[in-house]
Amino acid sequence: MALNLSVLLPIYNEERELRHCLEMVLASSVPFEIIAVDDCSTDATAEILAKQSDPRLQVIRHSQNQGKGGAIQTALKRAHGDVVIIQDADTEYDPCDYEKLLAAYRDGMTRNTNGQVVVYGVRNLRAQPLMGYLGNEGLTFITNLLCGTQLRDMETCYKLVPTVLMRELNLKSRGFEIEPEITAKLAKRGVEFIQVPISYKPRQNKKLRRIRDGFKSLLALIKYRFGE
């Protein structure tokens, strides 16, 4: 099954790792297109993006910061591929795993011809600092409890979803709570979640504020599980 992959790349002040991230993504022959959304960065992000010449890379710039969720929604509107995946603009995730996720999706579609299939890349969360590990494990546990899923890593960035289905979710979240919103809405649709181990190298300086953003993610889980 031939599939075109659209990579959704939200970016905010990532000058430190953006060059390396782009090199990794562009080195892969898998992406059909990469849609980078500069979410009103104030560092050298715009200059780094301007120096790229790969025809697969499309760059969009927000005039006002809209958060990770807002950048993902902007990129999703421009996607032309059959399936989409979110790529953080750092080096925590390895684009070499794209093919592995696509292979799992193809296999799932062959088996599950009557339903919808999505693929989640599962990280080794024990590589994270203790607070991050406990937060991710806790949110995944609550997700499974509320949504009836059996996920091992709800917060993973690598969620491979059919483009049409992702648009049908009508995403609303502007911040990091976009991850539980996607998961809760997919679960309500009764999709089959396929889970595949992926590479993961956590960075030390995260924009994520673990307590505040963890609480927002919990609220989003409840909101989108029982509402909208």
Strands, helices and their partners?
Layout: E1 5-11, H1 18-27, E2 31-38, H2 45-50, E3 57-61, H3 67-78, E4 83-86, H4 98-111, E5 117-122, H5 130-147, E6 159-162, H6 163-168, H7 178-188, E7 192-197, H8 210-226
Parallel strand pairs: 1-2, 1-4, 2-3, 5-7
Antiparallel strand pairs: 4-6, 5-6
Describe the structure.
The chain is of the alpha/beta class. It has one domain: Spore Coat Polysaccharide Biosynthesis Protein SpsA, Chain A (Alpha-Beta Complex). It is 41% helix and 18% strand. It has a seven-stranded mixed beta sheet with strand order 3-2-1-4-6-5-7, sandwiched between helices. α5 runs parallel beside α8 and α7 runs parallel beside α8. The radius of gyration is 16 Å and the shape is globular. The model has no long low-confidence stretch (mean pLDDT 93).
Work out the count of structural domains: 1
Q: Uncertain segments of ≥5 residues (pLDDT<50)? A: none
Quaternary state of this entry equals single chain
CATH architecture: Alpha-Beta Complex
Comma- or semicolon-separated keywords:
alpha/beta, 228 residues, 7-stranded mixed beta sheet, Spore Coat Polysaccharide Biosynthesis Protein SpsA, Chain A, single chain
Q: How is this structure best summarized?
A:
The protein has one domain: Spore Coat Polysaccharide Biosynthesis Protein SpsA, Chain A, CATH 3.90.550.10. It contains 8 helices and 7 strands. The chain has helices at residues 18-27, 45-50, 67-78, 98-111, 130-147, 163-168, 178-188, 210-226; strands at residues 5-11, 31-38, 57-61, 83-86, 117-122, 159-162, 192-197.
